[in-house]
Amino acid sequence: MVMIKSVGELEKISRRIRATDYLVVAQLFLQDNFLLERKLEFSDIKPRLLGHWGSCHGINVALSNLLSFFKGDDNFSFILGPGHGFPALNANLFIDGKLDEKNLADFCRKFSWPGGFPSHSSPMTPGVVTEGGELGYALGTAYGQVLGHPEKTVAVLLGDGEMETATALASMNLNKLISGKSNGKVLPILHLNGYKISGPTILGRKSEREIHELIRGFGYEPIEAKGDEPGELMFALEKADFVFHPFIIMRTEKGAGGPDYLDGKKVAGNFLAHQIPLPLAKTDEKQLQILEDWLSSYNFSELYDGKEFLL
Known about the structure:
By secondary structure, this protein is an alpha/beta fold. It has a single domain (7-302), classed as Thiamin diphosphate (ThDP)-binding fold, Pyr/PP domains (Rossmann fold). 32% of the residues lie in helices and 12% in strands. The chain has a five-stranded parallel beta sheet, with helices on both faces. The chain has a two-stranded antiparallel sheet with strand order 6-7.
């Protein structure tokens, strides 16, 4: 693996996070004007808005750091638990040239569209083996991949809502089965943003001490990564490399980077960021302007020249 230490390399991670966040928002909302070459109009917005925004920024933070940390390691793989955060996974696949869609317009238009991509992860996507609407199976799948393969490392991102499922909690015991030199290493990462589709998560209401005691009770060593700056998770990954059964807790705000408030209601840092935070962007001038400001905040023209990514 490659240790990421230089400021320049951390800046590359930050640029990738910005680019993938922009691509997520573009997939969710846009059917035209993908580079914001003119002011957004209602006709630029998809007629039916489907998908999930809330966990996508955290997924992009995790993937951007992991892909840099394990760069060049052919025995590393990644499993995404929150399958509803598919636009983030799709954005990363697009940046890495792993999709048939080479054109930004086709890529955005085909999200959650007949003949294109569904709104959840699905086996039609490169590297995806199960439908992403059901939660709880990711950790068990990760352990299955490393059994009998000591060369493998599998990082698995788990949503805090996902950790309320019986399957995910039962899978926490599987570390007992891989104690030995004949198996690989599983690196669980809890994406703790505090909220699920309709309210707070149980883990989001627990204290840091309670969460750490729970994780230690299953035989893991908790490692905190507080915030979405690349240095936070990178430090946690370096520390995890020296722990037998690490368990990273990555804390980011739900819907970070998106609208803070809408009509007096808190969106970012709340369950209202889970799906489409601007549901009337197609018909409401105020929401359309918020969307334009949101997209503009990523300065995507610095990251993509219309043909290739400048990361």
